[in-house]
Model the fold of this input.
Amino acid sequence: MSRLLVVEDGGEYEEFARLFLAERWEIVAAHSADEALALMRDGAEAMLIDLRFERAPKEDLIGDVKGMADKLFAGDEARAARWLKEQQGTLILGALREAGHHQPAVFVHDFPPRRLSNLRKLYGRVGAVRAFDAAAIVRTLEGLAEEPV
Amino acid sequence: MKALSWTGALALLVLTGCHGGPPEEGQASAAERWARARARWHIEREPDAWADWRAIEPESPEGREARQLLGEAQPRYRAFIESVRGGEPDVWEQFERAARIAPMDPALYLPLARAFRSRYREEPDNEQLKFRAIEYYRKFVLLNPRHPDAETALSELFELDPEGTARFELPAAEAQAEAAVPRAETPTWPLWVALAALVLAIAAVARLLWRVRVSLVPLDVLADRRPELHPAITYLVGSLRHELLKHRIGAVGDAVDALRRGGATEGQRAFLQNRLYGGEPLTEAWGGHLAAFERALGPELDLARRDPAFRRADRAIHTISALEQGVSRGDARAGAKLAAAHAELRALDRHLSGLVARLVRTPVDGALFREVVDEVRGEYAAGQVTLDEVVIRGPSPAPMVEVFRVDLVLILKNVVRNAILAVGQDEAPRRIGLDVETAVEITGEEVVRVHVRDTSVQRFSTTDLYARKMDRGLGLVTAALARYDGAILVEDGGQGFAKSVTLRFFRAYAEDELAA
Done:
């Protein structure tokens, strides 16, 4: 059975996936970019990614706090760190793509269409569903799988 | 006019009781007191918030910002009063525009009351005008008890509303604190007078309660009426949707469906049990969110009775709460009821998503830039500077930001004023430029960067701005920007300019761009 990589800061996505998506995929879960990259070495067919990592310890987060602080927050590193935490899922997706993992990825979030379009331009096969809806997640990931890489 | 009625005393007591900061007022920093003062006006709309704004030390950056905003708002309030006097339409829009900047000087309540009285005399059948006049006379007397016109105002109030208003006594200068207490001596009036007064007082309270009741509104109406509350509404709605409607309600959709069909596995029932009944009880979590809304958005908001979407959601939460036993048994009837309640809460989530999508958004375009430049060049000091060129570039379509237009104008005026005055100290050619660009960040979000470029040789850095080393208002801009999650940076000016003072915001999208 092919694998679905779940990336989140807590355990809710994994719990949901094991209950409602386990017939379709073997579920593997990561809680940081490092863990996600390590699990992807053994491959996965698709990814289910949380956006906000508010509960993650600081050392598990990725992103250039200083660089972003200078670029966007007038040097305020606390604001930059908060922003990177709230958007951590997109950064982890970026890291996975950079490492060559271009599998379909889905967020549970109601992104404005334009932002989703931006994410697709940046990271290729990315989708979003508004709520935890197993059928919608499967549909979205299968639709993305048919798109060219 | 010499006796203080109990209703008047009560009103004064309530008003004075609502005022006053916490005990640590003296120890709070100017920034903290400024934040509280802003909240007292922009969130709570306390008529006496003006005093709090004035009380911020004028030499502090916060005090300077408060005074600048008060100074900008008062002419607008005066224009509003003139419009009331002239019977012009849409006067409340004028008031709201001023109110978004700063509170009204309480001394202006008297000319406002007189403006409504004057209109009432012209239209004696329009009782609303009379009620407005009475309201503002009362506010003036209560907020300005020692004003030289207070006695006159009281007489004019008495003429308009001799019985319902009851009678006030202006507090003695040496004992203002006692003014809120009813007089101790027993009146020597006959019993029927006392009874009549009691009936009138009850009628006045009933009328007040009725008026309060009819003025309560649901969240979407409050958002339409009070755009200054949009940032708070965005935050509160975001918390409710993320913490409760997504992770506890939205997450169980498939499990609820399985239960309704009678096919929920043990694991799915455990999942439902955990999300809906584990941890903080749903009713308490829901109540906590409602309380946060009502605390932050003020007494006009009535989610429980006036907001149909919240009322239905409230019933749904209590229904779910009552179904715990049935859900744990896997009972299909409980599943059907749970599914209906769940659908109500999903509907609330969609409703809130739509509401947030139509909150405040301001396009950053050439028209905005031209308005700012024209206004600044109309000022005395900036008007003395001869500019050789003003380069304005606004893209089409214009990007939008989640900032009130009035605040964006205020921020830009400060930056443009600084640029014009700076180039005025240099030799010609003197040029300034305004333009805007957008860029996509690694998160997929877009940032909007508004550049105010100039040819001045004056050098300063972003650090200087945030260390408040700058005069002429740029220090104030940093504080204003922080309220909108924006930032200000000093950058190279690019071709033809020496430097750019750049304002950074996150881009917002129009309602149709947000539609799923």
Notes: The radius of gyration of chain A is 15 Å. Strands of chain A lie at 3-7, 26-30, 46-49, 105-108, 126-129.
